[in-house]
Structure formats: structure tokens, C-alpha cells
Amino acid sequence: MRLRALCILVASLPAAVGAQAPAGFEQAVDSLFRRWSTTTPGCAVGVARNGQPILVKGYGMSNLEYGIPLGAQSVMESGSVAKQFTAAAVALLQVDGKLSIDDDIRRHLPEVPDFGAPITIRHLLTHTSGLRDQWGLLMLTGNPPGMQVHTLPLILHLVTKQQELNFPVGSEYLYSNTGYALAAIIVHRVSGQSLADFSRERLFKPLGMLQTQWRDDYKRVVKDRATAYERRPDGSYAQFMPFTNVYGNGGLLTTMGDMLKWNEALSNGTIPGGKALVTILETRQRLTSGVTIPYALGLRHDEWNGQREVAHSGSTAGYSTFLTRLPDAKVSVSVFCNASDGNPTQAAHRIADLLLPQRAAAPARVNASAATATPWIGRYRNEKTDDTFDVLAQGTTMNIRMPGGMSPAESLGTNTFRTTNGYRFTFSGRDNTREAQVSDEDGVTSRFTVFQPPAATTLSLRDYAGTYESPEVGARYVVREESGRLMLAFPPTADELLSPVYTDGFSGRGRTIRFVRDGSGRVTELRIFAGRVRNVKFVRITGG
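Now predict its structure.
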């Protein structure tokens, strides 16, 4: 018992508290993480100012079974924070003259189908390729993460089966992990080393990031690795680890001290490849429409508290992460949590606020009233993507429900509203002609139109019954009519109730099933739309 108590005490001490830290800074950070204790997982924190670490510390437990606390040396998994490291490896190969990020990927991956326009490495790294997300596709096969151990060759094989893209190359930004898995393979083919080996020799060792490695073998024993946990509805925690060998899109194992070294190298241009490499990484992508988006290569440009911010968030299994730089203020913050209910982005921003000049408080947010919502109440659909949202009046407030959840709406003027997740809605029209122009946080605008879902009793459900097989994911679904309801079966998963959304369109389990008819009116296909995967083809092989 004495040894355990001593370990907890030592781990609670910061590995570094520099002179740059203002008075009371550590105590203020401690208060942000007071919810984490010896009975919960928690978060590891790293903070630097003017290039010097001022706090590296752990809160909560690294492993609940053995009572091991999180500390300065705890190794955490990065989630998508890893993407900037994959992008850096590719950029370093460009600096070496071995490739160009504007190469057609088929130069290095000839297995990838020709989709009619070149997909470049830059498209992969900026989520503008149109390639469907690997995890969404694997979900359709019944083998999502946690159900099967995936590999990089499997992801490439999945891509070779695709017949369509989510959208024309370069025309949109839609987050896709697939691009980064393919980039990892490109690094291997061009350099002759795996991404893991190349990164270790060319990036991690030169920067002194000695605790950083890729999770290219999930079975490898990693000293000081923190176990990840998910919080269950009853408040308890269960292990939730990423059992996969796919990496490059995520899968970096690291410490907070190493993350601060990385941020400092980017800030000063002391990274291998120098300032030229930093410029490559931080150049924002431009869509074919001419719109420049905030996303660069594994890094996102934003603003926080009046400061320019270069950052990326991440999550994988029970890990949730955020790494940010405020270059003009010379502040760097890393927060990695081994709990699915952690909020590292919020925590990192609150820490940054402790080091930034005080600004006048922003005007209080005023939610739009329920009366304001009345002309716009209803369900709206994007006919291209099958995304939907609902406008609701609940109590005295206008609310907008999107796939990510419900959010109160703030009025920005006549018929224009903003939700807390950064979306703007501008409504027009009347009655059945109502529509909304919806702008996301990247400034990309989409058109949604109001619609009224049909009652199942008005549809001929037998039209849809049959067996459907996908040449793109290799799965076979069975649709049947049962007691006035439409059901989808895909053993061994439980049968799925399909609810009418529009004529020939049904929803179920977070996705839309769109049935397609031929010229005679016979249903011949179904197409699935599920966020980061759109229009996945299933051909009817029996029935009808």
C-alpha cells in the first residue's frame, strides 16, 4: 500500500514547471481536471510557453485494474493528431526529391481505380479526394473497428473495389481516413521503409522524440502505455482499446513531452526538412470552386481567443486528443485523454486562456425563440448527400437537430441562425417551398429543402423486398416486408427497421437507404448514404 501511495504522489508531480509559468498556473490547471481521480481514467497534459515546457502532468489513472496513475511519462494514443506526422513523412520525401505531393496517386498506387480525374497525394492529405472513409465502408461489411483486426493492405484492397467517389475530385472537403492509410503505403513504396521505420529514423530520433512510435503492431508491448476506456451509461468504465494494425490515419503512441518537442520544431522550423517542410504542411487546400478551406496537410487553421491557431483533434477507441499551437502567442498545449468522455479540446483551450492576454467578454449568446422558429419548423434534406436536419420549437427555444445531436439556435438576423457547432442556416421560401442554405465551419455551403416523410402505409413495401449485393464492399443484404414494416437483415447483426424518409428513401441506424428504379419502375438497386460514405452500390440479385 505504501508503494502504491508513493507512485500516485510522484505521478501527480509535474515533470516540468518552468519559470515561464505565471503564478498560480499549475493550481488553475489542476482545477480544470479535478473530475479525474484514482477511480477514473483521465488526461495527460503538456504546456509550453516561449518554446519551454512549463507543465507536463497526468490526472487520473493510466490503468484501473492495476491502480497505475497517469504521469508525465504515460504513453497515450493520438487518434487523428497523428495525421500531421504522416503528412510530414510525405512532405519530407518531397523535400528529398523522391515524390511530389501533387503526384497522381496512381503513379505510386496503380491498383487504385481511375475515377476520371487524377487524385493527387495532396487530395489524400486534405480530405478532398472524394474517396469514401475506410471505417464507414467497413461498417457496411459488418466488420468495423473492434470486430476485426484490419491492416493497410486490406484498406488498399477495399479502395480497389470502389466504383464511385463521394464527390468529384477536389470539389469538396469531407473527412476521410482512407487518404492517410494510402499515404502510409505510399511512404513505404517510395522510401523502401515502412512509415513506422521512416518516421523513427527521419523524424522522431532527430527531434529527440524517444517515446514516440507508431502502433503498427497492436500486440506489441509498449512500456508505460495507458489503457483506454469508454464510459458506460451506468457511469462505470470498460476497456476500449484500438485493436487494429491500420496506422497513418491515427495510431501514434507518444507522450506529452514529445508532443511539445514536435510543436516547437514546427514553430521554429527546426524539423527535418526545415521551414520549407513546415510551409508544405501549413498550406491550406483550395477547392475547385476557388474556396480555400481551413484544412492543410494534417493540420487545421483556426482562431482561438483572438489568436491564430494551428491544431488537430483526434479520437480512437477510448482515447480522445487535441494538440494545438498559438504561434503568435508562442503557446503550445497538448491534452490526451484515455477516457471516451474526456473533452481535450475544451480543456486545452481553457489552459491556453490562462496564458493569453485577457480580452473583453464576448456578448452573451441569445438563443432564438420558439416563435422565431415557427415559420421554419420541419425536416430538411440535402438531395445529393441525403443528410438531414430538423428545426424544432422546444419550450421557449428554437433548436436544430443534426446527426451529431441537438443544438439551440442563435439568431444572426433575418432568417439566419447559428448553432454551437459552427453551422449557419439561412432560410427562405414558404410552406412546401422552404429551403435552407447551410454553411459549415469551413465556409462550404449546401442546399437543403423541406420535406414531409411519407407514411409506410402509403408505400408498396413489397417493391423493395429482395436480396442485394454490393460489388464495392462485398456484403449481401436482405430486405423484406413484415407486418407493414420494411426490415433489413444482415446476419449476424440484428434486423434493422427501415423508416420512410422520402419516396424510395428509408433511414435506419444512422444511414439512409435509397432504392433505385429502372425505366419500367422496378427497383434494381439500393444505395447507402452514411456520413463519410455516400452512394455505396448494392445490386438487386433476387426478388421483385
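DSSP finds twelve helices and 29 strands in the chain.
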